[in-house]
Specification:
The structure is a single chain. The chain is of the alpha+beta class. It has a single domain, classed as HemS/ChuS/ChuX like domains (Heme iron utilization protein-like fold). Helix content is 30%, strand content 34%. Strands 1-7-8-9-2-3 form a six-stranded antiparallel sheet, sandwiched between helices. A hairpin with a 4-residue loop joins strand 2 (63-69) and strand 3. Helix 2 (21-28) crosses helix 3. The protein starts with a helix and ends in a 5-residue tail after the last helix. It holds the Pfam family ChuX_HutX. InterPro entries: Heme_Transport_Util_sf (IPR053733), HutX-like (IPR010413).
Length: 169
């Protein structure tokens, strides 16, 4: 991406921090990772793709929302993320019902921790970024009965971000 394009993307995201990441990527013909990286610095931290460590931590948070956003659909699952383990080349989610499956964890190149406004509310999510710069899926911090972010989960989110994507000093 040329300097002018990057500056334009950064300006766009500064003015529209709640824009749908995948829509901006498609419109500007860049990767979702580039869009995440263009968010204001105080809204995003990106660390190494420590997939298993992140997923094991998230499995302790309780009810969250996992979103898979493709060109053809947006799938949302709200519930507890099951524990998983690596085997036969996949990170396997270990429960027979609800959310389960086999994730290609080795394709995870980075993990982004994002806190930004979205649809008039503060949101916080983890984006698992693949080797192609796409978003594998996002895990959103849950909300309480007043629609505020759950404080306990936000504390877990910040602790995981500090561990996997420490703030630059």
């Amino acid at each position: 991406m040329q300097d002018a394009e990057l500056a334009g993307l950064k300006a766009h995201m500064a003015d529209n921090p709640g824009a749908v990441i995948e829509d901006v990527a498609r419109e500007r013909k860049v990767t979702p990772r580039a869009v995440l990286e263009a968010l204001p610095e105080n809204m995003v931290r990106i660390g190494a793709g420590e997939f298993a460590a992140a997923m094991q931590d998230v499995a302790e948070w309780g009810e969250v929302t996992l979103i898979v956003h493709t060109d053809d659909a947006i799938f949302e699952f709200t519930g507890a993320i099951p524990k998983g383990e690596v085997g036969r080349g996949y990170f396997n989610l270990m429960q027979p019902k609800g959310l389960h499956g086999h994730l290609r964890h080795e394709r995870c190149a980075a993990i982004a921790f994002v806190e930004r406004p979205f649809m008039g509310k503060v949101s916080a999510f983890i984006a698992f970024i693949n080797v192609d710069g796409g978003i594998m899926f996002k895990v959103f911090v849950g909300r309480d009965e007043t629609r505020a972010l759950r404080g306990d989960q936000l504390a877990h989110f910040h602790a995981l971000a500090d561990r996997l994507a420490p703030k630059a000093s």
